[in-house]
Amino acid sequence: MDTFVIQGGHRLTGSIAVSGSKNSALPILAVSIMTGEACRFGNIPVLRDIQTQVKILNTLGIETQWKGRDVFTQVKDTYNSTAPYELVKQMRAGVCVLGPLLAARGEATVSLPGGCVIGERPIDLHLRGLQALGAVITLEHGYIHAKAPKGGLKGAEIYLGGKFGSSVLATDNVMCAAAMAKGTTVIECAACEPEVVDLANCLISMGAKITGAGSPRITIQGVKKLTGAAWDVIPDRIETATFLIAGAITRSPITVTGTRPEHLLAVCDVLRQMGVTIERKGTVMKVVPGERPKASEVVTLPYPAFPTDCQAQTMALMAVADGTSTIVERIYPERFMAAAELKRMGAKISVANGQAIIQGVEKLSGAEVMASDLRASAALVIAGLAAEGETRISRVYHIDRGYERIEERLRKLGAKIQRASGADDPAAAAAAAAG
Ligand code: EPZ
């Protein structure tokens, strides 16, 4: 429904504060299910996806209250343990209530999340891990029905790797279920993402016994009860990278504050290879732009390697680099939605078999383009900031899912970007209204 209108070619200046991590907040809010005590979750970004997760928690009997960037929760009743299709279809991360429900209530009914534009989103690893803990899982009418055995879940040694390696939310689900299972669980080939570590640390603050989070082997000693939480989520490393790349493509010495630079070593390494230096001091990161960026190569892999969630934004930077760059997408091989829209702006990109070849051009030209998924949409904003002339990006509700008021915050850096509300797109209007 809304459209961004960007006048490109302007240098940015100043500093921008990064929000709390969406991908940390989503699973961490779900641990409110695991305790009868009140919780306060802080540094929660005000985003569509977070609001959807809060609605899912409300349907599960959790009372929630926003105060600024804090979300206060309290379990009110446990009559309903079904996370409904109309909410989970909007935000597949709703599946991360599965482990907490099994742990706290011994049963869960969660809509199968289905796929999305970045590719098929299976949950076989989630189910394999929970079954290893003794859960009985049946799939019917588009729902996952999970039930703990009479004596409760039991610890187990679980290999959780799939053909694409580790799984972030599967690790989260199994770690939550194991936190209140009987005995010890070892998760081998666990995801090492900082958001998994944040979840583990939040659970530990509630009395869970977890070691090894951040490594491929996590050990969980089940406990009977968890206390309430008072936890501030980590800064959003993907949003941080998005702003750094916006600075790089406009050759602007912008500063990003409130970051965790140690979460962005792979991204900063690629930027350095492209001739963009990122200075870091404490939690402040500053772009030291070179001249025209140089071509580079990226392969997306599980953390600590280059994150798939920064792939589209980097493609936009490669589109104006000197030389030919390549991207190999090893996590979601079809995740190249940004390419077609960037080509409307003059980019020279060819995509085949999970690879993109990007032949850098001097300048992109503004055009009318359409947002398709969260990170591809961010790539279009980045490209629009550097392109010659005007870029109009429709269906920006995709961006609102993961970036808080991005146009206002970029305007503060001197970007010429406005949000135009318009119902010119019935499909988008219906989708946005549904959401
Ligand atoms: C998380 O999704 C993130 N979302 C995604 O960010 C991110 O792209 C992804 O991890 C990879 O880093 C949240 O944290 C809310 P996975 P998740 O399970 O956990 C395959 C964004 O833009 N797989 O780590 O759902 C899967 O198909 C979003 O913020 C299975 O085969 O991703 C993929 O190829 C998009 N079986 C790979 O593993 C499973 O049971 C990694 O997926 C689960 C996953």
Q: Tags for this entry?
A:
UDP-n-acetylglucosamine1-carboxyvinyl-transferase, Chain; 4-stranded mixed β-sheet; 24 strands; binds ligand EPZ
What's the topology here?
Blueprint: E1 2-7, E2 15-17, H1 22-30, E3 39-42, H2 48-59, E4 62-67, E5 70-75, E6 82-83, H3 85-88, H4 98-105, E7 107-111, H5 124-132, E8 136-140, E9 143-147, E10 157-159, H6 168-179, E11 184-188, H7 194-205, E12 209-211, E13 217-221, E14 230-232, H8 237-249, E15 255-257, H9 265-273, E16 277-281, E17 284-288, E18 297-300, H10 311-318, E19 324-329, H11 337-344, E20 348-352, E21 355-359, E22 368-370, H12 374-386, E23 390-394, H13 397-400, H14 406-411, E24 416-421, H15 426-434
Parallel strand pairs: 2-15, 3-14, 6-7, 10-11, 18-19, 22-23
Antiparallel strand pairs: 1-23, 1-24, 3-5, 4-5, 7-9, 8-9, 11-13, 12-13, 15-17, 16-17, 19-21, 20-21
Helix pairs in contact: 1-2, 1-7, 4-6, 5-6, 6-7, 8-10, 8-12, 10-12, 11-12
Bound molecules: ligand EPZ.
Give a quick rundown of the structure.
The chain is elongated, with a radius of gyration of 21 Å. It has 435 residues and is an alpha/beta fold.
Folded structure, characterized:
- It is built from 15 helices and 24 strands.
- It has 435 residues and is an alpha/beta fold.
- It folds into two domains: 3-18 and 235-434, Alpha-beta prism (UDP-n-acetylglucosamine1-carboxyvinyl-transferase, Chain); 22-232, UDP-n-acetylglucosamine1-carboxyvinyl-transferase, Chain (Alpha-beta prism).
- Helix 12 links the parallel strand 22 and strand 23 (390-394).
- Helix 4 (98-105) packs parallel to helix 6 (168-179).
- The longest helix is centred in the middle third of the chain and has 13 residues, at 237-249.
- The radius of gyration is 21 Å and the shape is elongated.
- The mean pLDDT is 95.
- The structure holds ligand EPZ.
- Residues 23, 26, 93, 121-126, 162, 164, 167-170, 191, 195, 308-309, 331-332, 374-375, 402 line the site of ligand EPZ.
- Ligand EPZ binds next to helix 1, helix 5, helix 6 and helix 12.
